[in-house]
Amino acid sequence: MLNVNKNLFKKYNMRYLSILTFLLIGFNTFSQTSLNMSLAYQWNDTNVVPSSSDNRYNEVWGYASNGREYAIVGSRGGTHIFDITDVNNVDTVYYIPGKFQGSLGGGTIHRDYDTYKDYLYIVCDEGASSLQIADLSLLPDSAPLVYDADSMIIRSHNVFVDTASGYLYSCGGENGLGVNELAIYDLTIDPKVPELIVNCKFDIPSWTGSVGYLHDIYVKNDTAYCNAGNNGLFIMDFSNLPAVTQLGSLTSYVDKGYNHSGWLHESGDYYAFADETHAMKIKVIDVSALPNINVIDTISSNVVDSVSIAHNLIFNGDNLFVSYYFDGVYVFNTADPNNISLAGFYDTSTRPHIKPKYDGCWGVYPFLPSGKILATDRAEGLFVFDVSFPLTIADEEPSELAFVLYPNPTASNITVTTTQFKGELTYSIINLNGKKVQTGKLSKFQSSINVANLASGVYSFSITEANGNRSVKKFVKY
After folding, report:
1. pTM value?
2. Sequence-ordered list of residues with C-beta below 8 angstroms from that of 3, at least 6 positions apart, any chain
3. Which of 88, 144, 232, 344 has the lowest tally of Cβ within 10 angstroms?
């Protein structure tokens, strides 16, 4: 009897291992964590002091000068500058300790950056911090601080420089007058010593009651798109300070959450913004005829609808680059804002999607002359990407229909993410005997399909365009 039990146990284990191996092979063969984006370089220093949730990094920015390109990365301790001109020979050129650095389990979470001429402006939104200004003109040799004081800015959540006017906008935090909602500084007289022009909370009587605290801001030619958290979006004219005119507002809209950040398309006709609230989609709005504001479309990664959360987003040409926390970097083609499609993505995070966490990709920067894309992940550090989609979408179109299928293997649902396509797109699921077991239509760039009723096994997933173009991938149902 003992021998029989051993044999049965062995047989059971071999069967179990065979199934497990099959699923793992299927996962490694068929799953995909990127589309049209490839990793060129990554930096992750485990010596950086983590938070209680084991997150080490925050914002990313870029800088280019004299034919060289640099990545600027915020950590809990300070600011790291890398020469990434040659991704096969990356050099850590300079480190700027933050005035406030935090310690294990507490302290710095937010740093933010912007540049004006050859100066880098650094802020932090925790502790007894300061405004730091670094001179980047001496790179790659050094980037010394030329200003580090708390007389104007103690803490700030975000800074944005309107290069046309030379004004720096500081959102949230604290300054010498107390809690800050929005303050504006002039950099044109001396970029090393900003001069306060307006503190909106104190200098504009109606500001606190109408707009209030700003989480982030985008400004072009004195027109400011104010992301005001739970209050929504306000578009303001700052061209005649201290007088301010409201051009439009959006305080009620689909998928409303905490209005976090946004960016204006170069045409000036539409603006995209993200609500930093789990399950809320990105809104793309028409701002071409203010004060009328209309939502053109809502877009999402659709990886885990109830948990996915967009953070920061930036337009470069027709491409909208989004740091999507758990889901990584997503890039959407908005050449036709009425028909937005997915251009590419890369999953930077290895962490599970869990509310109310905010793990994963924090920031993205797409403006380097080489076309390299920078991103930071809160736990995984700096990412430098090459992309295979055109950075100027109008120059060319994809030569073939491409799509990604995930998760793979799956027990219940699969998400289908497509690139651009023309006309109607249909799908068929085909079993190993060549029989179609499920058919349907796909959305313009992403669909979730229920396959729970399919028997366990390997299937082909075929998608077909209206013009007959066809593409096929395999997936495993368990």
Report:
1. 0.79
2. none
3. 88
